[in-house]
Design brief:
It catalyses: K(+)(in) = K(+)(out). The protein is of the alpha+beta class and 419 residues long. It contains eleven helices and 15 strands.
Length: 419
């Protein structure tokens, strides 16, 4: 039996209509990946399977400075105690070899006075290396070996003290401590500036001591594949900043907005607002300069992933003039406001400049409509308040009006009403 044909033609059925409907581009969800630079500036990179560990011992000083404080203190304490014990054993051997430990010796000069046991030798070792000198134990000119040991221990103690003091100074004066007061905005924004789409971020310095020769670099880090099929997991692309075009350094006296114009040479040229949310790129901001007080070069870093880039926003002004002094309100450092911005990419904006004009016109119309609605609401509220006030006055006037008085006068036929 043949199947009966449908009354509705196939081209007008649901499958045919669905096939002819224009489909919107479907973007895959962005996979949560580990960011290359954390918000606090630390590098999210783990070194594994390093076979040549001896390279770290070739530069012991830098290794000690890079270690955490607890490991550094443990190493220094272990070094001091080990040196004291080592030279205590040496002093005990000197006394033992000279026969100072014998109780029955008489009328013989000792190499070190009052060294009768290992405990006394350990105390004398501490006195020599730390130069305490309580006076109960001292070296004599009887033994040349003891004099040589004294010289060696003094030299070793000075070396240990120099390394310890230098390491502590470098750890306390590290440049990353100064970077704690160099701040970045929580979010980056993309908006229209000078009729071009721009990527913008805000930087600031909380201290009054300035950063000399400050310079800012922007980089885009993303995973790319070359035409030959080579996969580059961390591909770093420099972004040209407008502030670096005029001069090589920044005068970081007050918070500044650093922006990058998205042009043909920018890796953000083909990204629209929707594609940006689905991309896995990461924008790194690097601020470098010389600390004015110490003269040490410092570097502060942060990064922005696609979720932290707000499309169609602009930073609010935070610098105001109050009584002849410029004041900075850091409570609004990262605040942004929405502005009229095309949702298309910079490439589409260059190909169709009318998109920007239409967007600005729509924004102006919506702004005027909002102002009209606000004025009409204010006018209605004032009219309602005026009507309510007039009604109250009328009621008050009615209450204050004198009531009519009625009098009854006798007549022939009865009482008559007189008002």
């Amino acid at each position: 039996m043949l199947a009966r044909k449908s009354i509705i033609p196939e081209e007008f059925g649901l499958p045919g209509l669905a096939s002819r409907m224009p489909r919107k581009p479907v973007f895959r969800d962005r996979v949560n990946k580990a960011r290359f630079i954390a918000k606090n500036g630390s590098c999210n990179l783990a070194h594994k399977n390093i076979r040549e560990q001896g390279r770290f011992l070739q530069d012991v000083f830098t290794t000690l400075v890079d270690l955490k404080w607890r490991f550094t203190l443990v190493i220094f304490t272990t070094t001091f105690v080990s040196s004291w014990l080592l030279f205590a054993m040496t002093w005990w051997l000197v006394a033992f070899g000279h026969g100072d430990l014998n109780q029955d010796r008489a009328n013989r000069t000792e190499c070190v006075t009052n060294v009768k046991s290992f405990s006394s030798a350990f105390l004398f070792s501490i006195e020599v290396q730390v130069t305490i000198g309580f006076g109960g134990r001292m070296i004599t000119e009887e033994c040349g070996t003891a004099i040589a040991v004294l010289i060696i221990q003094n030299i070793v103690g000075l070396i240990i003290n120099a390394i310890m003091l230098g390491c502590i100074f470098m750890k306390t004066a590290q440049s990353n401590r100064r970077a704690e007061t160099l701040i970045f905005s929580r979010h980056a924004v993309i908006a229209v500036r000078n009729n071009r789409l721009c990527f913008m971020t805000r930087i600031g310095d909380l201290r009054k001591s300035m950063i000399i020769g400050a310079a800012v670099r922007l980089q885009v880090v993303k995973k790319t594949t070359t035409p030959e099929g080579e996969v580059i997991p961390i591909h770093q692309i420099d972004l040209q900043t407008e502030s670096a075009l005029a001069s090589n350094t920044l005068f970081l006296l007050a918070p500044l907005i650093i922006w990058h114009t998205i042009d043909k040479n920018s890796p953000l040229y083909d990204l629209s607002a929707m594609e940006l949310q689905c991309s896995d790129l990461e924008v790194i901001v690097i601020l470098e300069g010389v600390v004015e007080t110490t003269g040490i070069t410092t570097q502060a870093r942060t990064s922005y992933i696609s979720d932290e880039i707000q499309w169609g926003h602009r930073f609010v002004p935070i610098v105001n003039e109050e009584e002849g002094v410029y004041s900075v309100d850091y409570s609004k450092f990262g605040n942004t406001v929405k502005v009229a911005t095309p949702r298309c990419s910079a490439r589409e904006l260059d190909e169709k400049p009318s998109i920007l004009i239409q967007t600005l016109q729509k924004s102006e119309l919506s702004h005027q409509n909002s102002l009209r609605k606000r004025n009409s609401m204010r006018r209605n509220n004032s009219m309602r308040q005026g009507a309510a006030g007039s009604g109250n006055v009328r009621r008050n006037n009615t209450a204050l009006a004198i009531p009519k008085v009625q009098f009854l006068t006798p007549t022939d036929g009865g009482a008559s009403l007189v008002t």
